[in-house]
Request: fold
Amino acid sequence: MTGLVWVAPTAAQAHSRHHRHVDEPSDGQYRAIALAQAALPNAGMTPGAVNSAVTQNTLDSTICRPSGYTKSIRPPGQYTSNLKRRQIVLYGYEDRRMADYEEDHLISLELGGAPSDPRNLWPQPHHVIGGWGSFVKDQLENRLHTMVCRRQITLAQAQQGIAHNWIDMYKRYISEVPTRKPSKGE
Reply:
């Protein structure tokens, strides 16, 4: 099983509250929709990894400083693109279109994730059955970053929770269901 299906919505699905409408990209092909189990990374390949420079004691000089931290440590696009291409194959996805994935840090940079460690990067599908795709995880990363910087949860709690099961963390801190609405063109 590849974890991806091609979905062409029926007229009923396009207007149903229980089904996601799948837009037709300009190339005439429907975008890939990942099966629900693809919302979480393969823990054996992507268990998560942290940046040792980010600790509870260094928050104010690293992830919680006013601006520029993640930009200063983000790996080059060429590195992540090459890694994404390899990992799409390793993950066994039939859909090889790079645009259908984000090479995502499981433990985000804004939560002290390791920038270039392949154990912390994975090809996360943008669109997943049930709505648990990459854009929804981004909401959680922002919420947890704010909570860590306000000392509402510890850095370790945020890192361990998101690495273990980001969907459970989302349900705990944001909503039981994904709340992100796709933007025009997605």
About this structure: The longest helix spans residues 155-173. The CA atoms of residues 127 and 133 lie 5 Å apart. Confidence is low (pLDDT under 50) at residues 1-26, 182-186. Strands lie at 4-6, 32-34, 101-105, 121-125.
